[in-house]
Every structure is written in C-alpha cells, then in structure tokens.
Protein 1
Amino acid sequence: MNILLALIAVVVALAAALLVLLFLFTRQTVRKIEAGLPPTGHFVDVPGARLHVIEQGQGQPVLLVHGLSGQLANFAYGMVEPLARDFRVVAVDRPAAGWSTRAPGAPADLRAQADTLTALIDRLGLEKPLVVGHSLGGAIALALAAYHPERVGGLALIAPLTHPPEEISPVFKAMTIPSAAVRKLIAWTLLIPMSIRNREQVMDIVFGPDAVPADFPVRGGGLLALRPGHFLGASEDLIGAAHSLPPLVAQYGDLRVPVSILFGREDRILDYRKNGEAFVARVPAARLTLVTGGHMLPVTAIDASVDFVRNAAARLREPATA
C-alpha cells in the first residue's frame, strides 16, 4: 500500500509539473504573440466592453464584424483598404476578441453583442451603416438589424451563421465544454500545443478547399486566436449564440433592411444551403450570391468580397420601391 501511495504521489507530482511547464510555455508564447501583433487602431469604451477599432476612409459608413475566434485583421488583410477608397470603413474587434475586452460577467449572447455594436455606432456617429458580418458576425449583424433596426442601413453577410447548426464543427468542439474551469485549464495549458499539432487539419476545415495564405498568422491576425483570453471569449460567444439564435430566427420575417448574402459553395464550416438558401426562403427579398470557395472569403476571395460589399452598399441607394 505504501508503494502504491508513493507511485500515486509521483504521478500527481509529475502531472502538476507538466501543467506548470505548459502554463509557463503558454504565458511566454502569448507575450511573444502580443509583442509581434500590437493594436493597430484605437479604443472605444462602451457599456460592458472596451473595443479596439480601426477607421479608414470617408463617405457612406461600413461596419465590419468578424466571426467566431476571429478579429478585425481578417478584414484588414485585404478588404479594408480598397473599401476605404469610397467608404468610411470601421472594423471592430468584438468583445474579448483581438485586442478588445469584455467586462467580467457581461453577457455574450447575440442580443448583447448587438447592443454593444449599437453603442459603438452611436459613439462613432455612424449614420445607418451597412453592416458586414462574417460567419458568427453575420448572426450578430442580423441581431443588430432585428433588435435595433433604426441603427442599420442594410446588411452584407459573408458566409453567415443564420440557423442553429445540427452539430458543432470539430474546430470549435473544445469551446463547448460545459465546465468553465476546465475550459480555462485547457486554454492555459493545452490550447497552444494542440493548436500547433493540429494546425493543418484545422486550417483545412476553416479555409478549405482554398489554400491558407502563408502570411495569415501575422497579417490576418491568426496568431491572436492562440491566446487563452481569446479562446475563452470565443467560447462565451459560441455558448451565448446557442440559446439566442433560435429566438432571432423567429424574427427574420420582420426584418425591414436590405440583406445581401455571399457564400462559398465549398464552405466546410457553414453550409450555404442551410444558412443561405434557408434564410432566403424566410426572407424572399434577400439576395444570395454563390461563388467558388470556402469559409474565409474575406481572406481568400478579396476581390469578390469587396465587390459584394460595394454592390450591397449600392443597393441601399436604390429607390425604396425597387
């Protein structure tokens, strides 16, 4: 019995030592990532959050809202500059993503995130912007139009989440672990090593069949998603969306702003039939455009994405009877 207890003690000590080493490795890696990818914009304080935003250009306002585990660099990679030639472009790190923060205990459901964007729109004086939402950002943009219609001019949704998924992509499975304590433990120990190990498999799902640009980890902000706080924030987003998306779906028929949708036919994260065609079936006035490509169209199909936003913006200038 004494030998068994001694063995158990050794195993526990080794496990504790491993966790400590993983924590130190994570902390050091996070410091390197943050030193190499500092904030590029300015900060705006709104209720429940401190938002990192970049602004470029003048004219009709366009608000860019990124997806789950993303950040504004997903748009700054190639879309912001060409759009800023003709529009006032505002890209935002959503709460707890990129360089933005979320107040402890603040909700992360779709309506709460729509409220946050409403506060940002008011703070920046954006007059009925065209809201461009990618992936989960699409669901948030829809919530903004549903719950704050007077603040929105129209929606341009790129590969948007519009309906509850039948199952969560394996890319995001760890974010749905019920225990917040376990998710935090994973974030500060296993997240970075496992992300490095599974990078090719994960990127193949997120980007496929399109190739992952070699400079995406830096230029596209991909490395920022490795930070524990970013992972935990995305987990809150995903859990918050799960219970707040069904009530939002019920309001689609009441939407009164123009909605345009762009989807890649080969998207491996969200199916265009379940999230594009199904939405148009509920909102016949919505326009769906399909292109060849995967989920990360703002990065892999920049010209098509920019043209899509331009066309959606032009639609807002059409006569009301059109």
Protein 2
Amino acid sequence: MTNIHSTAIIHKNAKLGKDLEIGPYCIIGENVTIGDATTLHPHVVISGNTTLGKNNQIYSFAVIGNPGQDKHYKNEKSFVEIGDDNIIRESVTINFATGEGEKTIIGNGCFLMATVHIGHNSKVGNRVILVNGVGLGGYVGIEDMAFVSAYSPVHQFCKIGSLAMIGMSSPIEKDVPPYILGAGNPFTIFGLNKIGLERNGVPVQSREALKKMFKLVFKSGLNTSQALTRIKDDIVPDPYIMHFVEFVQKSKRGIYK
C-alpha cells in the first residue's frame, strides 16, 4: 500500500510504483520514475529525467536530478539512473549528466552516507560504500564493492577499481587500481585490501595470485609496462588478475604507484 503525505508535491506525470512511502514536503518532478517499495523521507527533492529502481531508501534533504555543476551543460536532455536496494542518506546530491542522452548512474545495493556528492556523468557500480562527505567530480567511475572513506574528494575523470579501499581525507587525483588499500595526502598505497577480498568471497588461489601481482607492480622497482609483462609471464591466468591488468591498461590518468 502506498502512503503519500498530504504535503508532498508530486507532478501528475511522474511514474510511481507500488508500496511507496513518500514523506512530508517531498517534491517529485514531471519526468521522475520511482520503483516499488521505495521510501522517501521528509524533504526529499527528485527532479530531472530520473529513474529509481525498487526498494530504495532516500533520506531527508537529498536532492537528486539537478543539473551538473558544469559550464559545458547546454540544457540538453540527459539522465540519472539509480538501481535497486540503495541507501541514500541525508543531504546527498546526485546530478544528471552533461551531453545529449548521457547518464549519471548508480548501481544496486550502494550505501551513500550523509552529504555525499555524485557529480555529472559519474558511474558508481554495485555495493559501493561512500562515507560522509565524499565528493565525486564529473565523469568519475567507481567499480563494484569499492569503499571510499569520509571526506575524500575524487578528481574528475578518475577511476577507482573494484574492492579498493580508500582511507579518510584522501584526495584522489589518479586512478586507484582494484583490490588495493591506501590513504593519505598525498595518497599512498599500503597493500592489498585483504579483509575485503576475503569477506567478499574471493577464492584463496586468487588471493595468492594477487599477492604475487602486488609485489611485481608495487615493490619490484619495475615500471608499469614491465610489471604487466611479468604478470602475464609469471602468474597463472586468473580472472582477478586479468581485471587488474585490464584496468591498468585502460587508465588515462595513470595509476598510483
């Protein structure tokens, strides 16, 4: 059963699913779609061409679907797409993309804590955790199950790899490879995210292969190209290793070493 507070303002053309809870003073725009079993706590604003999936929790003063903070935006039609089972806490802001038909995307099962900012054209994978005050510039990419601690700004166009864990107050200005643990200003890599790998069911043989890979890339003194060649020659093929190599090869801003 859907429950909509009498003070909520909902455009007649908005598309609402079943079993919604929409709290006092929420505002929902004309081109918004909200999936089943989603809760909007008081004072949530959702506008623009925004689609939310099922079973999302959106807390007070979150603002989703406003234009990006981008001088290049010229009123083109672009989008925000948010998946299922996300928790979006107080005062989170998520901007729609710059560019005709482009999208800002949030996957499934993410936890965006209070005052997180998702910039235009950013793409956040599944089960990502962004702690209070994290800010993503435009065109940032964050892969599945990454963890970014509080008050860590991520420069536009940077990528953060799967299961990477970034410590508090760590400005990110290059690409952060998958599976690593790091923190600081300047950002410094300390090792593999061993606990994260284990908790998320990465097989023992893959974790052992990643240890060998880490030594080659970060401790051997080889440059990145040499290290990748050695990985291909010396380490048994493994899907996690292959993903790491592909991430590094596609990096445009360069990776942290």
